[in-house]
Amino acid sequence: MVQKVLLTHVAGGCTYLVNNKLDKKLKPLPVEQILSSAQRMIGKKVEFDISSNNCEHFVTKLRYGEPRCLQAIVKKELLSVVAGTDKYTVKNKHDDEYTPLPPNKIVQQAEHLVEKEMSYDIWTCNCEHFANQLRYGVSRSNQVTNAFKAVGLTLGVLAVGLIWFLLNRRKREKRQQ
Prior knowledge:
- The protein is mainly α.
- The chain has helices spanning 7-11, 31-41, 55-64, 79-83, 103-113, 127-136, 142-176, and strands at residues 71-73, 117-119.
- It folds into three domains: 7-64, endopeptidase domain like (from Nostoc punctiforme) (endopeptidase fold (from Nostoc punctiforme), Alpha-Beta Complex), CATH 3.90.1720; 71-140, endopeptidase fold (from Nostoc punctiforme), CATH 3.90.1720; 145-177.
- The longest helix is centred in the last third of the chain and has 35 residues, at 142-176.
- It starts with 6 loop residues before the first helix and ends with a helix.
- Belongs to the H-rev107 family.
- Residues 1-71, 69-143 form the LRAT domain.
């Protein structure tokens, strides 16, 4: 339940810091709008989960108008549990490019990170970066690389189309003169 409580009371004597870390990336909403939105939330029940709707999502939605979270908690769960009813395959797709670390080293590193909070960013530190860092000691994501390639290809096709259009328009204009 959303309540209006002083931050010092919520912190319960612990040290706290207000960190508006996304101000460099996102434009904060006007203070009046933030306060108005927060006021409307008082008394409402908000369900939180660690991955898609946590307290950081809540406060960034109030401050910036969109939910964002730059943190993740490492959990230890069976892959079948995480995937649920979705189909999955394990693809050690970089084994031909990188030498995988020994399984006991991978497990040791992963076990050491369980329950630790880590930064999360879709472009530079997502789950594929994490898995590749554990397996190969190299942080990389084909999802990101492929997204950039797709955007580049799309922009290239649009540029060629625009150039073709402009050249044909000039030819038509010259013929009409």
